[in-house]
Amino acid sequence: MSERSQHGDRPEPPRRRVRRRDRHGRGMRGPLAPSHVPIAKSRGERFDDLVLDAVDRLKPRWGTQLASVEFAVEEVPPASELTDGPARLASEPIPLGRAESAAGEDPAAVIVYRRPLEARSRDREQLGALVFDVVVEQVASLLGLTPETIDPGYDDRH
Hints:
By secondary structure, the protein is mainly α.
């Protein structure tokens, strides 16, 4: 007796088998590490955590001023900041971050560039210190203060 569909005399199409193993008999690949260990995070996620740690270090003293500021990470500066032209000298360094004042509906923002900072650091500890310095400098620029006012230890590191 052949299989018939409920809606007529046409046979039902054969069902596809769900493959549980690859062609070598091994199981499907899954995550290499549990999600709660640091190695499971991508480089970008670890960098985001460094930026959030820097902001958390500033919040006890500057929490009210930073409450409406958004912090973001971009891979690289926009092309407009990298092009050589009359307003930009070739000897100027690549920007590590920027601060944008509030405009209309848009809140104030501090943007940190991941790739230039990673290129300038030799290890995670140095990267964390560099990220903190860039966040301090951009917050100072945004608030119209000096970096030493935002973080009293800034002068000791420079």
